[in-house]
């Protein structure tokens, strides 16, 4: 009996084993390599992070964030932030982990993005590290600085303030400022253990101020009367009212508690009845609370969703803003669902109760009004260029949604102008802006959140803004001037 | 039609291919020396002093081996020696690269009294074992010098081994049992496969592998006719008589039992594959391969049920889904995996209590089986880092993987040499195995055929089990990577294996004896 045949078969089987190994090695090192390199558990990528410079982040031709050589082994490169606290709400920080743009564009900045590696495929093939791409932000650095300084000046000690300006035609964010802020330089890679300690300190803040959470995009506040713009828009669509419809501005008794809902004043338009425009200009609470009651909370909630309420607005991939809400129901601490009742609905109509919005969200509301009802998706990164200046990415404006008709938008535009020309914000008549004031109560012993939400220039709106500061007093005198100063800088040629 | 072996023999050139072997050996040396030079240049910035010691030592040894082979086995297969030298050299260079004591920076830092990472890579030790291994190769070639006169004094040929089949089988068992004998056995890295011999630890399993091949070959060659021809037919399977299959099954169960007790699953798998393949070669019964596979499945199933074999379960689970186990995972009764890595609260709790192994204690509280996939995952990360062309020798970070110099040396090489390098290494292994198989086919004696076939297959299977394990093709079990891994036993056993193949290939390829003179009608009868 001859054994050659089985030996040959075993030899072939042996070859198959080796083919199996070769296929697996090809699979792991060829197609899986990228996933393995970026696996969260892979500590190599973190040590690797500091070995090569990241791309720069600039705005308005000014380099804001750049990598700097440390002349040390680890980290080889640090990160330096020009006017760190001013731009932190947009740039975020980088220390291995990252936030905001540093996070959203991590792969481009770090040179690991496919758009770079494919373009530089030969470098990748021979294992040469591709260099990180440089980003250009949509931010107007001078206006951003003004916003930061003004917020700092107008916000009550120990409280918060935020400002957002967006280009209504494109959605490009011009300003996203927060007070207080933090300095990313303090926690950059070169700071070592001290930076880690500082980051834990910032992260562990327990009071009302959480420095790592910016007050422009990532924090919500009760919008107060500035929300009446949304209520009006939903009313125009669902209740068939317009700016000249006569509405009741007199007393309103809340249906459940039987208590009256107060107006800030009972003179002028708020004396009993007035056209909607007048009620809006003088911010008569009762008319809008009534409108909300007529709509019902579900309809108000659904209408607000067209403006972006109810979901996280994505500025960039992996860079969402906080969620603004007009809740139909809320959950209490024990997890019980409490529906928003009639009284709650009335108060929701004037931006109180459980209604909360980010400054970004309110700026989007103003943008819809200023742009014929169209909201463009807000974004912060305009361009990404490789080291050789070739363009890797250029933001193209995207439609976020149509919040109302063009006609409704132009009526609301007029109503906002009326606020400044004859209503609650007459103090801003010289500022070439229009908008809606808001003064929201945040509870006993807590300062008001004071808003001014609108657009500029007054006649042909180009930019929408939202400013909030916390402190005593009203929106017109405490947020209005901040908006005026920022817009003056934005509109400066 | 004549057999394939006869056809091959008919076409064999019966030429000495020593020049080819020499040229290939020079190529293997250039490869090794370049590897050392690159490690030095990349890591320290200059050609390392070690190049002369390590490279030079290897050159002298390899050429020594070559001349012995050329003298005593001139018709030997020209590829086996150079390929083995190349593998050994690359492994040595990698271990040299991983042994930080050979780095100048490290020496300077140590002299300055800095605290340094401890590493267990031991380049001088590996060099010494390479000396011993190649020394054994030379000795084996010399001792097995004359297969024509098996009775000559001090001549022990592969064929001689056939006479001692049962003694050798007994020897294999004793070798396997040694590590569990108290006093000389030692447990290293969780497997009790070592014995302490003075300052050295030896893995007797590596040698038992060779002895077992001899035993299987010797036994099967006698019984194969009986086994395949006499027997009961049950359905599609024909079973041999118990008295034919009995001894081999006893030995086989014994081996596997011992290995399971030692938790050395890799070797168990290796022996099992060896047994099945040799049984197939001897009897040509595919149905028996099926039965063998069935036995394996039953074995694995039983192993997962036994409480003390829980780690078998886990090996398989880690293989399928390693991520939850990273830095410590806990497999619960329900089959759910709960991470107990240092980021988890339960780990921190036991850490705070001062537990020696917090993850393990945490898992005990949860009532599950603790395991850790960090090794495997880190090995894969190394492969990912390497990509297609690798980082270059001395320029990666292979030391991040635990056991980067032994079980995971293939991943370390994958990081620095890349996919390209690994494909070359696999091709080299495949070539050695195929040359061995060719030797088996060309051999004239049935015992030698089985012997050569078994030895070649066991080498290939060992590469498959360990390389498949570290690349996550199959569940990871510990085995050495032949010629690459750090470790004396493995090097010695594999060099002996190559010596046996070299000797057998010489015998198979040398010309048949010729008539001294024309003796008219007298017929020359070859006894082989």
Secondary structure elements and their pairing?
The complex is a heterodimer of chains A (493) and B (528).
Chain A: H1 4-31, H2 33-37, H3 44-49, E1 57-59, E2 62-69, E3 77-81, H4 84-91, H5 100-104, H6 106-110, H7 114-119, H8 121-125, E4 134-137, H9 141-154, E5 161-167, E6 173-179, H10 192-203, H11 228-238, E7 246-248, E8 252-253, E9 260-261, E10 273-275, H12 276-281, H13 285-295, H14 297-305, E11 312-316, E12 319-323, E13 329-331, E14 337-339, H15 342-349, H16 359-370, E15 374-376, E16 381-385, E17 391-394, E18 399-402, H17 406-422, E19 434-440, E20 448-456, E21 463-471, H18 475-478, H19 480-491
Parallel strand pairs in A: 1-4
Antiparallel strand pairs in A: 1-2, 2-3, 4-16, 5-6, 5-21, 7-10, 8-9, 11-12, 13-14, 15-18, 16-17, 19-20, 20-21
Helix pairs in contact in A: 9-19, 11-13, 11-14, 11-17, 13-15
Chain B: H1 4-11, H2 18-43, H3 50-72, H4 80-98, H5 104-111, H6 123-143, H7 165-177, E1 185-188, E2 191-197, E3 200-202, H8 204-229, E4 231-234, E5 237-240, H9 242-261, H10 265-283, H11 286-305, H12 310-320, E6 329-331, E7 337-339, H13 345-352, H14 358-366, E8 369-371, H15 374-386, H16 409-442, H17 446-470, H18 488-509
Antiparallel strand pairs in B: 1-2, 2-3, 4-5, 6-7, 6-8
Helix pairs in contact in B: 2-3, 2-4, 3-4, 3-6, 4-6, 4-16, 4-18, 6-18, 7-8, 7-9, 8-10, 8-17, 8-18, 9-10, 10-11, 10-17, 11-12, 13-14, 15-16, 16-17, 16-18, 17-18
């Amino acid at each position: 009996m001859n054994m050659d045949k089985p030996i040959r078969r075993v030899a072939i089987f042996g070859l198959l084993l080796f083919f199996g190994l070769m296929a697996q090695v090809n699979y792991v090192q060829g197609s899986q390599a990228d996933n393995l390199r970026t696996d969260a558990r892979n500590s190599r990528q973190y040590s690797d992070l500091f070995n090569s410079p990241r791309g720069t982040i600039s705005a308005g031709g000014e380099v804001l964030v750049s990598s700097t050589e440390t002349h040390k082994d680890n980290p080889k490169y640090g990160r330096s932030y020009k006017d760190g606290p001013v731009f932190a709400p947009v740039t975020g920080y980088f220390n291995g982990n990252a936030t905001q743009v540093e996070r959203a564009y991590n792969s481009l900045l770090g040179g690991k993005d496919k758009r770079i590696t494919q373009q530089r495929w030969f470098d990748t093939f021979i294992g040469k590290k591709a260099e990180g791409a440089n980003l250009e932000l949509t931010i107007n650095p001078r206006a951003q600085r003004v916003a930061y300084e003004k917020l700092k000046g107008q916000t009550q000690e120990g409280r918060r303030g935020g400002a957002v300006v967006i280009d209504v035609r494109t959605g490009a964010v011009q300003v996203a400022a927060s007070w207080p802020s933090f300095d990313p330089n303090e926690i950059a890679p070169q700071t070592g253990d001290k930076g880690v300690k500082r980051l834990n300190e910032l992260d562990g803040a327990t009071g009302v101020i959480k420095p790592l959470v910016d007050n422009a995009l990532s924090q919500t506040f009760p919008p107060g009367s500035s929300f009446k713009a949304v209520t009006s828009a939903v009313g125009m669509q669902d209740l068939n009212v317009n700016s000249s419809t006569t509405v009741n501005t007199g007393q309103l008794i809340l249906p459940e508690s039987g208590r009256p809902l107060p107006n800030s004043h009972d003179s002028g338009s708020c004396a009993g009845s007035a056209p909607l425009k007048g009620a809006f200009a003088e911010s008569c609470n009762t008319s809008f609370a009534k409108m909300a009651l007529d709509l019902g909370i579900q309809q108000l909630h659904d209408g607000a969703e067209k403006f972006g309420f109810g979901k996280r607005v994505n500025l960039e991939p992996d860079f969402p803003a906080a969620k603004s809400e007009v809740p139909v129901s809320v959950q209490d601490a024990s997890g019980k669902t409490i529906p928003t009742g009639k009284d709650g609905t009335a108060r929701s109509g004037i931006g109180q109760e459980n209604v909360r919005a980010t400054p970004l969200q309110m700026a989007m509301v103003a943008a819809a009004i200023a742009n014929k009802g169209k909201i463009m998706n807000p974004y912060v990164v305009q361009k990404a260029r490789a080291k050789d200046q070739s363009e890797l990415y250029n933001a193209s404006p995207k439609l976020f949604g149509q919040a109302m008709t063009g006609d409704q938008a132009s009526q609301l535009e007029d109503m906002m102008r009326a606020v400044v020309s004859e209503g609650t914000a007459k103090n801003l008549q010289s500022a070439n802006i229009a908008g809606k004031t808001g003064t929201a109560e945040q509870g006993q012993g807590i300062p008001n959140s004071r808003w001014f939400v609108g657009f500029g220039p007054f006649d042909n709106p180009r930019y929408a803004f939202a400013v909030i500061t916390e402190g005593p007093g009203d929106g017109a005198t405490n947020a209005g001037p901040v908006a005026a100063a920022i817009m003056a800088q934005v509109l400066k040629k | 039609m004549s057999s394939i072996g006869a056809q091959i023999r008919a076409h064999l050139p019966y030429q000495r291919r020593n020049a080819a072997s020499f040229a290939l050996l020079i190529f293997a040396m250039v490869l090794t020396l370049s590897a050392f030079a690159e490690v030095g240049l990349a890591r320290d910035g200059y050609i390392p002093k070690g190049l002369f010691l390590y490279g030079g030592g290897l050159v002298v040894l390899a050429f020594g081996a070559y001349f012995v082979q050329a003298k005593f086995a001139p018709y030997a297969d020209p590829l086996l020696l150079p390929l083995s030298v190349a593998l050994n050299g690359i492994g040595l260079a990698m271990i040299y690269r991983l042994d930080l004591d050979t780095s100048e920076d490290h020496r300077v830092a140590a002299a300055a009294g800095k605290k340094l990472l401890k590493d267990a890579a031991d380049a001088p030790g590996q060099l010494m074992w390479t000396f011993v291994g190649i020394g054994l190769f030379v000795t084996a070639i010399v001792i097995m010098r004359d297969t024509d006169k098996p009775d000559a004094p001090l001549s022990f040929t592969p064929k001689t081994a056939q006479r001692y089949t049962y003694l050798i089988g007994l020897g294999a068992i004793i070798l396997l049992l040694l590590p569990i004998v108290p006093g000389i056995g030692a447990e290293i890295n969780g497997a009790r496969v070592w014995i302490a011999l003075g300052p050295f630890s030896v893995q007797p399993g590596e040698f038992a592998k060779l002895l077992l091949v001899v035993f299987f070959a010797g036994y099967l060659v006698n019984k194969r006719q009986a086994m395949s021809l006499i027997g009961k037919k049950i359905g599609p399977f024909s079973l041999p008589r118990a008295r034919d299959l009995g001894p081999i099954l006893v030995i086989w169960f014994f081996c596997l039992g011992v290995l399971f007790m030692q938790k050395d699953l890799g070797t168990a798998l290796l022996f099992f594959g060896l047994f099945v393949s040799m049984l197939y070669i001897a009897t040509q019964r595919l149905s028996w391969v099926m039965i063998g596979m069935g036995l394996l499945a039953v074995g694995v199933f039983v192993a997962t049920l036994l409480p003390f074999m829980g780690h078998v379960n886990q090996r398989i689970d880690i293989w399928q889904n390693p991520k939850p186990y990273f830095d410590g995972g806990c497999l619960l009764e329900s089959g759910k995996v709960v991470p107990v890595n240092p980021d988890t609260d339960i780990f921190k709790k036991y850490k705070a209590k001062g537990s020696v192994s917090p993850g393990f204690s945490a898992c005990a509280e949860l009532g599950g089986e603790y395991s850790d996939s960090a090794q495997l995952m880190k090995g894969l990360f190394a492969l990912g880092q390497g990509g297609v062309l690798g980082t270059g020798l001395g320029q990666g970070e292979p030391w991040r993987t635990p056991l980067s110099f032994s079980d995971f040396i293939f991943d370390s090489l994958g990081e620095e040499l890349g996919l390209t390098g690994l494909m070359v290494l696999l091709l080299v292994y495949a070539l050695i195995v195929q040359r061995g198989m060719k030797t088996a086919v060309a051999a004239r004696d049935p015992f030698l055929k089985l012997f050569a076939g078994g030895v070649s297959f066991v080498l290939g299977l060992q590469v498959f089990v360990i390389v498949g394990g570290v690349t996550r093709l199959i569940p990871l079990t510990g085995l050495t990577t032949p010629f690459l891994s750090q470790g004396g036993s493995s090097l010695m056993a594999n060099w002996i294996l190559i010596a046996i193949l070299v000797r057998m290939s010489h015998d198979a390829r040398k010309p048949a004896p010729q008539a001294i003179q024309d003796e008219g009608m007298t017929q020359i009868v070859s006894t082989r």
